[in-house]
Every structure is written in C-alpha cells, then in structure tokens.
C-alpha cells in the first residue's frame, strides 16, 4: 500500500495546492460553457474480452477473500403448480437465506464504520460540487459534515440524514460529466470493478485531490483516507445479498454487473431521470404493436 | 407539481366521465392520478407486510403475491424474452411466462428482505409517452433514502406496473439481459430455458 501512497506525499510538496487548483480550472474552464455531456443509452464496450478476464479475476479474489457460500445449490426449488402460490420449497430457500443474514450487531458496526468514512469524505464532495457550480449541494454537504462531525459523534451516526438532510454523493467523474466529458468506454477495473473511461479518470483525480491529504500531516492523512476507503468497502458486506446474487446466481455476471453499473451511473448523472431516455419503453411499444 | 397534478386531474376527470359513458364498464383511461393510486395501494400493501411483524419467510410469500397482483407479469415476461418470442410456439410462450412469473416472484420477493424495517413513500407522478412514471422514495434502515420508480401501463387492459427502476436500475432491461444470457448458455433452446427458469432464483 505504501508504494501507492508515497508518491502522493511527494507530489504534495512539488505541486502547491493553489497552483494545482488554478491549473485544473484553467484547463477545464473552457468546457464549462458547453454544459453537461449527453446521457448515452446502450453499451459501449469495445474491450469486452479483456474486461471479462478482469471480471473473472475479481470474482475469484472476492470468493477467496470472503469464502464463497455454495448457495447455488439452493436453486433446486420445485415450482408450484398453481401460479402465485409458493410451495414449501420456496420457504426453505428463503429461510436458508435468512440464516445467512449478518447479525444485527455486526451490521450496526458496519453502518457506523460506513458513516464515519462517508463523513470524512465530505470535503472531497464539497470540492466537486463547487467545481460543478452546484453551490447548493456544496452547502448541503458542508452542513451535513458540521452536524455529523459534532452531534453525530465524529461522524459515527448520520444525524443529519435522520433529520432530513440525506447525503448527496458526487465525485470527479460527475464533475467531468458536468463539464461536458462523455462517458467513454466501459471498463472493468481490478478490485474496484465496473467503471467507464470517464469515471476511472475521475477516480484518479479524486484520489489525488482529496482535501484530507492536505489538511492532515503524514501519516494521519493516510489513516483518514483509509477510513473513507473502508467506508466504501463496507458496501460489499452491507449489500452482500445483492452482490452475491449478481456474482453467483446470474447466468452472466459480467453482463449483469455491467448493465447495472451503467444504468445506475447514468441515473446519477441525469440527477434522477430514467424514463425520458429509456430503451425498454420502445420494447413495450413493440410488444403492444405486435 | 401539486398544482400541475390538480389541473391535470380536472381534465382527467372530465375525460374519465366521458370515457365511462362511451366504454364498457371496467375500461377507463389511465391518468397520473389513477397510476399514483395504484402505486399508492402497492406501497401500502408492501408497508403493511413490513409492519406486520410476521416471520421473514411469511413476508416473502406476501411480497410474491403483491408482485403478481400489481405487475403486468406477462408483458414483462415477453419483453424480457426479446425477439426470440417470435420463434417460440404458443405453448412454449405459455410455459415460459409461467416459469418467468415464478422466477421473478422468487428473485424479487427475496430482494424485499432489504425493505424490512423501512418504508416506501409516494413522491410524484408524471406522464411519459403512453405511460405514467410514479416516483417513490425508499427509506431503509441505516441508508440514505433512495429512488424507486414504477412505470404504469394500461395497455394490456388493466392498470399494472410494467417496469421498476431502483436508483435507475431498470428491472426489465436487467432481466432481458439475464434471460438472453440463459438462452445463450443453452444454445438458444427455449425448452431448456423454461426448465432453467424453474430452478433459477
């Protein structure tokens, strides 16, 4: 890990913050006039063969780290004869699944860790919101940061969320989108998983520009950043049922995870629009036209 | 939004009244209100099950029934099969639709596990082409609220939802991809697909 992070601290000394920030603004300043990029439909994956290789590797790592449960076996469920009336077989599978659910205590600890990491990551979000010229979002997350860091006991509890100030997540990938940079090709990254060319570039910039690097001295800044990564890593456990169902139950986990990533990402980029640009509506038109 | 809805509802009420005179009973024009009402009933049913305090397995059974009651499962099934539905025989289509319904009910019934301890809240509705998009917000334990949309259609004769979008993830496109992959794996054999669907979850 250290070999990855040392260049950061080195870079920090050679690249004065303000100069770097101004450079970025000047570099992309001309793009802001163009408005956000179009939200594409369909799948743009010219490097599918390579991506599939990385996906298989990711799956192997995931199974080795977490110990794959052989849940595939439970798929042997007899179908009920009359529609809509589940048989006892379905009950068994459901109860089998229920016992695999994490204990409540474990999930509380995970939520606290996730909250803590998410809260520490707020300065990075605020910077991105400002770069996107969304001062409302920046103020919103600044307020969340203030409330959760104090009343929320250093961010362990998402008090602001409970009080009606939910997290507005953003990243430099979205900033690039707002600046007019299009999605690019789909990519499967080792460990990280599905991405696009734009989002990968965004991730790299987010990594370097996270204010935590510059606010805290070395090595506290590494610890702080580490918590933000751990917060994100908790998703793998908090949504383990969902991830497992995609990885192990689907006929083609690569195609499923690619589609789900792109749809969710496009939804985020369009700020909540789905049906305006929905290919499936045309499929229903075709069906009703038959 | 509110004024927009109520203005629309006046027009819709007038239209609805005319339609009810002209059409046989049971058929009526879908409006943003009627679609919202459908999703509202769906949400109430889901919330009722969540609040019932039943065992998890009993809840999944209830969720399955809710899914079958409110979704246009056969249209969803046919769209998920894609162009391959044109080369399937009538009896194959019937068997496929039935297997698909069981598959979807199991898969998404299980998914509703995550809703236990949470609630869905109706947010807004708007017409999209010939359909109505109804937005709800899911408030789940320990999570930022997230967006669940339903696309409601009356084109099969009854108002039902034909698609669901969880944070933008389109259920029908996701299942179309999955069915396509299953069919590919079986070299395009529809009977083998039907058998696989009976086992998949």
Automatic annotation (TrEMBL), chain A:
This protein's UniProt keywords: Lipoprotein, Signal
InterPro entries linked to this entry: MlaA
GO process annotations (BP): intermembrane phospholipid transfer
A GO CC term attached to the entry: membrane
The organism's place on the tree of life at top rank: Bacteria
Annotated region described as Disordered, given as residue ranges: 73-101
Biased composition, class Acidic residues, residue ranges: 73-84
Pfam family, one: MlaA
Family membership: Belongs to the MlaA family.
Name of the protein in its database record: Phospholipid-binding lipoprotein MlaA
Annotated organism of origin: Aliiruegeria haliotis
From TrEMBL, chain B:
PROSITE patterns: TAT
Pfam families: MlaC
Any coiled-coil regions, as ranges: none
Span of the signal peptide: 1-29
Secreted found in the keyword field: no
Alphabetized UniProt keyword annotations: Signal
Domain of life: Bacteria
Name this protein carries in UniProt: Phospholipid transport system substrate-binding protein
Organism of this sequence: Aliiruegeria haliotis
């Amino acid at each position: 890990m250290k070999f990855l992070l040392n260049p950061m601290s080195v870079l920090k000394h050679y690249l004065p913050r303000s100069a770097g920030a101004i450079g970025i603004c000047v570099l992309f300043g001309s793009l802001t006039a163009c408005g956000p990029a179009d939200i594409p439909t369909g799948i743009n994956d010219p490097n599918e063969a390579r991506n599939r290789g990385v996906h298989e590797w990711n799956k192997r790592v995931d199974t080795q780290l977490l110990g794959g449960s052989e849940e595939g076996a439970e798929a042997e469920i007899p179908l009920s004869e009359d529609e809509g009336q589940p048989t006892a077989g379905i009950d068994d599978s459901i109860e089998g699944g229920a016992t695999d659910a994490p204990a409540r205590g474990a999930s509380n600890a995970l939520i606290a860790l996730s909250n803590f990491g998410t809260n520490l990551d707020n300065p990075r979000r605020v910077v991105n919101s400002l770069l996107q010229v969304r001062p409302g979002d920046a103020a919103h997350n600044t307020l969340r940061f203030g409330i959760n860091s104090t009343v929320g006991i250093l961010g362990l509890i998402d008090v602001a969320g409970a009080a009606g100030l939910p997290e507005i997540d953003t990243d430099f990938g979205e900033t690039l989108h707002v600046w007019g940079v299009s999605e690019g090709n789909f990519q499967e990254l080792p460990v990280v998983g599905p991405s696009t060319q734009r989002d990968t570039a965004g991730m790299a910039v987010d990594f370097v520009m996270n204010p935590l690097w510059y606010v805290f001295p070395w090595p506290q800044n590494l610890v702080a950043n580490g918590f933000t990564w751990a917060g994100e890593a908790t998703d793998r456990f908090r949504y383990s049922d969902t991830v497992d169902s995609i990885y192990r139950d689907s006929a083609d986990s690569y195609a499923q995870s690619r589609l789900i990533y792109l749809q969710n990402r496009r939804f985020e980029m369009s700020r909540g629009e789905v049906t305006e640009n929905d290919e499936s509506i045309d499929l229903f038109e075709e069906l009703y036209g038959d | 939004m509110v004024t927009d809805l109520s203005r629309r509802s006046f027009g819709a009420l007038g239209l609805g009244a005319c339609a009810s005179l002209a059409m046989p009973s049971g058929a009526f024009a879908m409006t943003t209100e009627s679609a919202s009402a459908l999703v509202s009933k769906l949400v109430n049913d889901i919330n009722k099950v969540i609040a019932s305090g039943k065992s998890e397995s009993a809840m999944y059974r209830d969720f399955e029934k809710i899914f079958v009651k409110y979704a246009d499962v056969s249209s969803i099934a046919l769209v998920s099969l894609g162009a391959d539905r044109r080369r399937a025989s009538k009896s194959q289509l019937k068997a496929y639709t039935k297997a698909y319904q069981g598959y979807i009910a199991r898969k998404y019934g299980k998914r509703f596990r995550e809703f236990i301890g949470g609630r869905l809240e109706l947010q807004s509705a708007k017409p999209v082409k010939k359909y109505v998009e109804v937005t709800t917000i899911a408030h789940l334990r320990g999570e930022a609220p997230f967006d669940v949309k339903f696309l409601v259609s009356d084109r099969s004769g009854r108002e039902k939802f034909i698609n669901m979008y969880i944070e933008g993830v389109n259920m029908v496109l996701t299942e179309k991809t999955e069915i396509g992959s299953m069919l590919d794996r079986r070299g395009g054999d529809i009977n083998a697909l039907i058998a696989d669907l009976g086992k998949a979850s």
